[in-house]
Structures are given as C-alpha cells and as structure tokens.
Write a structure and sequence with these properties.
By secondary structure, the protein is an alpha/beta fold. It is built from five helices and six strands, in the order βαββαβαβαβα. The longest helix has 17 residues, at 109-125. GO terms for molecular function: G protein activity; GTP binding.
C-alpha cells in the first residue's frame, strides 16, 4: 500500500474487527511562507523535491494513502499558503480537520514563534480533538540552526503535540511524521472524517497540484532545501 516506508513502523491496532477498514482524514499544513510546507507534502505524496518550490497561492490539495497493518488511512491534505495576506483564509482549511502539521524552519526563530501562534489558534478554534504535529523543517542545514531541538521538544511536550525535525531535502522523518499522525488518529468508525475532507476552498484561488496522487515513493529521490 502506498506511503509505507522510512521507519514508519506502525503499532498493531488490536481488534480483528479493524481488519480491512478504510479511513480518511482531513489534514492541514500551516506555517510561515518558505518554511517548506509544500516541499514536505511533495516529498510525502510523490517522493520528489524541488530546490525552488513556487509559493502556494491560497492552498493546494493533495491526497496520499498509507497502510497501518490491516487498516488503510487516506489523508486529504490541504497545504496552505504561508503569506500573511492568506491568513484570513486559514480557518476555511483547518475547520473540520482531524489533523494538522505546523511547520517551522529550524534556522529561523521567527518561524518558530509563528508556529506557536498557529498552535494557539488551532487549540482555540479548530476541532477540539485535532491531532497536531510540530515539524522543525530543514534539518539538513542544522549547522545554521537557530531553534534548539530541546526547546521545541519541551514546547511540544507541554502542549501535547507530536514533534519531529524533518528535511524535505533528504526525506528525514517526512514519512514518519505522517505515519505517527495516522497512528494517533482515532479509528473507531470506517470512513471517519470523510465528510469534512471535501474541497472546502470553493471560490478561493487554489494552486491545485497533484490532486488524487497515489504515489507511494514517500522516501525516495535526491533532495534540496526550500519550498513554501
């Protein structure tokens, strides 16, 4: 099944009744412009990396399916634009989302501060049961680090967040963070969350890329840095 790989070993789900169940979840990516949100999604969905990723306009919609034992999880992913002028549109994308990845650039302290603000906004306005992951991207240039791993880990622990440092360039932890989210999401009812995952951005200027892609090459390919 697409999406398996790169250390994303899953825990057994226990009950045999879960066998062959299909679930779909709406997941949104949030963060400042140029922290690498689009690059992370492209790496996860298509196993690709572009050194110079165009800025997202509004939001991009992509899908990827992963396998957890005998359970199939389909992510319907909204990759939102990071520019401030699109901030007012963000609730349109995180409303009804079962999961979110808040991304910052480990070489830029300001993006970490902004990531904290996104977490606060999600905690205040999003689904109260939303699974939030914090991704410290651009780990491949850790020699330029401005945000210490321990500081981010402590913040994540205090706020009940999943946390990993990632690199869209090298694929470090990219598949793993999505798989960790898939493991943590509740899987009680088949087709969970499906009704919320439609194209809620109707009427918005969307940069719609690779919609319905099912490529499983989530951890392959050479890398680069950059991205939106």
């Amino acid at each position: 099944m697409a999406g398996r790989g790169g250390g994303g070993a899953s825990r057994p789900n226990g009950a045999a009744a879960a066998a062959n169940k299909n679930f779909q979840f709406k997941l949104v990516l949030l963060g400042e412009s140029a922290v690498g949100k689009s690059s992370l999604v492209l790496r996860f969905v298509k196993g690709q990396f572009h050194e110079f990723q165009e800025s997202t306009i509004g939001a991009a919609f992509l899908t990827q399916t992963v396998s957890l034992d005998d359970v199939t999880v389909k992510f319907e992913i909204w990759d939102t634009a990071g520019q401030e002028r699109y901030h007012s549109l963000a609730p349109m994308y995180y409303r009804g989302a079962q999961a979110a990845i808040v991304v910052y650039d480990i070489t830029n302290t300001d993006t970490f501060v902004r990531a904290k603000n996104w977490v606060k906004e999600l905690q205040r306005q999003a689904n109260p049961n939303i699974v939030i992951a914090l991704a410290g991207n651009k780990a491949d240039i850790a020699d330029k680090r401005a945000v210490e791993h321990q500081e981010a880990q402590e913040y994540a622990d205090e706020n009940g967040l999943l946390f990993m440092e990632t690199s869209a360039k090298t694929a470090l932890n990219v598949n793993d963070i999505f798989m960790a989210i898939a493991n943590k999401l509740p899987k009680n009812d088949p087709q969970a969350g499906g009704g919320q995952a439609g194209r809620t951005g109707a009427g918005v200027n969307l940069h719609d890329t690779a919609s319905q892609s099912r490529s499983g090459r989530c951890c392959s390919g050479a890398g680069g840095g950059g991205g939106n």
